[in-house]
Amino acid sequence: xxxxxxxxxxxADHLQRARxxxxxxxxxxxxxxxxxxxxxxxxxxxxPALVLRARALKGAGDVYWLEQRKVKEAVSVYKELxxxxxxxxxxxxxxxxxxxxxxxxxxxxxxxxxQLAAALQRNPPQGAELQYQVAKLYFELGDYAQCELExxxxxxxxxxxxxxxxxxFLQAQAVHMMEGRRQEASRIYADLRSRxxxxxxxxxxxxxxxxxxxxxxxxxxxxxxxxxxLKTHPDPNLVQDYISRARRRITETTxxxxxxxxxxxxxxxxxxRPPRNSVEAVGGSADEAARDHGD
Length: 295
What we know:
By secondary structure, this protein is mostly helical. Helices cover about 75% and strands about 0% of the residues. It has 16 helices and no strands. Helix 6 (about 110-120) runs antiparallel to helix 7 and helix 12 (about 220-230) runs antiparallel to helix 13.
């Protein structure tokens, strides 16, 4: 007499069912299957089990975030993944997603920086982009000195990356925000234009250089830079507005304009009453002047 020997379902079976459920837009069922796979792998520390465990956690985190938009649950699962399987490819991806979630939904900028820094230690293929994000996060924090350092580091580590011009522009912005370094910022913007003349940031660098000139009261120089920027800037109306305002400042600060303002101001005053006598003329009060006349 024969009989069936029941086959125990494996973690791989549950993972496949979870993926099928995701494809068929059944996220709740997918989460159940990912949980079953994880529970079967919980006490197994073998290398194959760790691979499957990382996939189960990553899959569950993605369902929470991408399918259900449940940020809190997604963050919790992604954090569990990077804690339990820190060397896995899934953990690297989870750190990058975590950084974005922490920044966007919790304003935890330092937490986001920590996740990106840990990801960068793995030398990922998108390292230049992650380095740029770290620099931007420090700018958001108002830590301009560290932003400058991180932006410069990008150019040193990823010299051929498409993010280098972005990093140079961000470095110049950070330097400009620091006291007494206005001219240095202008030199960095000029360096960007010299090294990356075809960059879409080149006209923006010209605009920023013009702003620095205008801040120093050099409105004519600022206008020259802005006129040059007009040739390639994506928003010429904005640049033209800067030029118009600078020209008004020049007009208002010329000696003729200042003199005209003074005359106009004087014309607005009530005519002065002539002194009643010599006592009032030399500074005596009206009462003293009246007594001098015997009033």
